[in-house]
Design a protein that fits this description.
Elements (H helix, E strand, L loop, with lengths): L1 H10 L1 H45 L4 H8 L5 E3 L1 H5 L15 H9 L30 H7 L7 E2 L9 E8 L3 H17 L3 E9 L7 H15 L4 E5 L3 E3 L13 E2 L3 E2 L15 E5 H6 L13 H11 L4 E3 L6 E4 L14 H6 L1 H4 L11 E7 L4 E6 L2 H7 L4
Parallel strand pairs: 1-10, 3-4, 3-5, 4-13, 8-11
Antiparallel strand pairs: 2-4, 5-9, 6-11, 7-9, 12-13
Bound molecules: manganese (II) ion.
EC number: 2.4.1.-
GO cellular component, one term: membrane
Subcellular location: Membrane
Length: 392
Amino acid sequence: PTVQATPSSSSGSSASGAVSVNWLNCLASKRVIRSVCLALMALMGLWLLHNWFSSSQSMLGPVTWTKYKADAVPVAMATTAAARPTRPTNTTASELADPASLASRLAKSNLPACPEDPPGLLGNKIPVKSDPSLAPTWAELQSTLSYIRHGGCQPEHCVARQRVAIIVPYRNRDPHLRLLMSSLHPLLRRQQLDYRIFVVEQAGTTRFNRGLLFNIGFVESAKIFPAYCYIFHDVDLLPENDHNMYRCGANPRHLGAEISSFGYKLPYGAYFGGACALTAEQYRKMNGFPNIYFGWGAEDDDFGFRVAWAGYKVARYPPGIARYKMIKHNRDAHNEADPKRIKYLEQSKKRWKEDGLNSMQYNVIGVQDRQLVYFISVEISEEAIRRRAHLT
Ligand SMILES: [Mn+2]
């Protein structure tokens, strides 16, 4: 075989030139292909990294996300609002289903019911001051908001259609709270609501628990001011359009759909954070917020899932209305993200009936009427909550 091989290789000397030229061509094109492939792989890598990063930023890991895609909370526009996109305040009778309370309040008054469309709204022409270093002092607020008593007010010349409690979880954000006061009170007055604002402050240095603070606010505020509609509101969100009505409808409404820090877009379809409006009945049916999420993240996603578990659909206003400026801030101390939150979120459907309004553990330290806002200070123990939920 070695002898036979020699002539074949020597006879191919003239042909080998052609072969090597072909081979060179081939190499040249392979080089091109290879570099194109490398570039594509690099791009793909960057894309994957970007995806991973943005999904970890939204604190819904990719695994959880695909798992819950099938269960994604259905989104429904506020139906009548769509018909009048510039002024979505005209809602149907069922959307303003506060008949018992409104009727009894009307019976006790000589005044007519307030119109469905409050006449004095300013739309997106409201001034928004969001620099915490320029926030007015409490004394300044009390003089400009002298019409506020017990954390709120009610319309002078008509009977409010809904009685609304605004619940704000809080810890150590005094400038934010002052900005919120200067923004919310005039807006809620223009919206002709009978409302009060309750701040629920988590005392001490235990990890922050936004969900549990909402549950506590719901229960404790009702002892002072039983409302029909509850707004679950972050302290650092300043509304930019007063057509974003702080009222409740037939379905839980997501008010915080367009937030400046998310580029005024939903960060993901199922996002249900920032500010939401639910009737007491809707909130109870959802068993409120979960209590088990300590630290930053995912309790709002769990709350969003509960909308679907309880048989509701998320309602949102058409674009351009539910807009908020988020006050710029760094992550707070004692609010570190808990890696277990993804696991809890995966167990949302299993756990929602046991973990919520019916399984709260807390101590009220004090309730204070500070004129512009009710302050409810509470103490919560992570250990007690975990024990109760069998999460040792
Ligand atoms: Mn924030």
